[in-house]
Amino acid sequence: MTEGGAVADVQAGGTAAFWAPGSQVLWRYRENGGARVHICRPVTVVRDDAELLAVWMAPGTECVKPVLADGTPLHAEPLESRYTRPRTVQRDRWFGTGVLKLARPGEAWSVWLFWEPGWKFKNWYVNLEEPLVRWAGGVDSEDHFLDISVYPDRTWGWRDEDEFAQAQRDGLMGLQLAQDVREAGRSAVEVIRAWGPPFSDGWQHWRPDPAWSVPSLPDDWDRTPTHVST
């Protein structure tokens, strides 16, 4: 899904090597322990090269998110049953301010930047996850529950430790994976404490191209990639 003349560099076999700025792709997450995509967010490529993938999720973007089978939002369900009750997915829109997402190849986390209305920078958010897998239409991952918030004064704190623990109790994450996620988190904390990239790169001052359109959610948002690469 590309628009406005922004064309991905595509390798033989159909896998995108690097996308040109302005390309519109999908940022997706599979359900934990399964193959079904349950989160899909159309985004616009800001930068894509051997060092970094940066994408912009604009306000008003139509997305797909998981909900309980009866339509109840996940956050409204008590934590003890949140991961065991039947689920489905529904279309929705991102009504908050936009989100800039940054991911380095092979790294087990991505860094998201949030702003208050009027472009007042709020915080960075380290989302611990499976390293992104690239395919012709975007990137796929699996969320690992545990997160880290990082603030403009360089303080930081763990987020969602209760969900991380519950996911283990419910069998969505084995002991080895949980240990790997904790280790990835500690690695991210080392970067935060050293104030390394991307925190030191000034991305909080970045602004989207006003000519960019809001990407649309395709009907086949959950299609299975035929060619993937890391």
From TrEMBL:
Keyword Hydrolase applies: yes
Signal sequence segment: none
SUPFAM superfamilies named among the record's database cross-references: FomD-like
Keywords assigned by UniProt, alphabetized: Hydrolase
Domain DUF402: 78-196
Pfam families referenced in this protein's UniProt entry, alphabetically: DUF402
InterPro entries noted in UniProt: DUF402, FomD-like_sf, Ntdp-like
Descriptive protein name: DUF402 domain-containing protein
Organism: Streptomyces xiangluensis
